[in-house]
Amino acid sequence: MVGAIAIKSNLSSRGILVDATCPMCGLVEENLQHLFRLCPLAQQVWKNGMLDIHSNFNENLSFQDWFLYYIRLFINLDGKQGQRLPHFIATLWSLWITRNNTVFRAHIGNVGMVFSHIRVAIHQFSVYLTGTESPDSLSPKQDYPPGFLRVNIGRTDEGQTEFRLQVDGAWKKRCRRAGMGWALSLATNQRDFDRGSVAVGMALSASHVEALACLYGMGSFPFNFLHLCTHGFYKPC
Question: What are the start-end ranges of the E strands in the chain?
Fold first, then answer.
């Protein structure tokens, strides 16, 4: 969780240009400590919830230590089958879901919305434990979190493509070293990749690495139906 989720402070540390202000309160930088503990919304949720946690107590305690403290506390008090531990996890998850709805769906996050997500999460957990309902009932009715099936960066959209190109990149901010990888699968064999390769180099940001991976990937498959035009300052070496 620490350093792994796409919270704004993590994105900024990876070189992605974002407004790092908390989308819930707009007061300070969004990081794990603030979003899940110290944001006014989070404090209200913890204080008014089943667990009655004063999340702003001992602000100098890191989020990781605070998180582990309550995990160990609830296991010691109730065992692994107690009710407080899943409620604690559901509250963290619901704060994150409410935050994502605010960022990606322009929803207005509030305490009631968080509690609604907590009820859904607890219900899903009980279904998982008892197996009394179909697994399909665990899936939310809406597409969530938001995503997409494919993206078209060409001049026209021809519908179903004849191939699928997947790319990925890794970047170290301190030394600006980058690694790119790409793989191709034909429409008749979408699950198994037919060709692929990797490259290393230098990049200015994480987004730059992803763009380079896309460029290298498109340029490495000389099919007669693929025409590549680029405009910009970068010239592949």
Answer: 163-171, 177-186, 195-202
Q: Alpha-carbon distance 63 to 215, whole Å?
A: 39
Q: How far from 88 is each of 44, 54, 113, 117, CA to CA, in Å?
A: 14, 13, 16, 13
Q: What are the strands, taking DSSP E only, across 103-194?
A: 163-171, 177-186
* Nearest CA among 232, 207, 228 for reference residue 165: 228
- Cα separation values, 41 from 18, 111, 145, 200, Å: 22, 7, 21, 43
What residues does each domain of the chain span?
8-138, 153-237
- Indicate if the pLDDT at residue 6 is higher than 90: no
At 64-112, the pLDDT tens digits run: 999 999 999 999 999 988 999 999 999 999 999 999 999 888 888 899 9
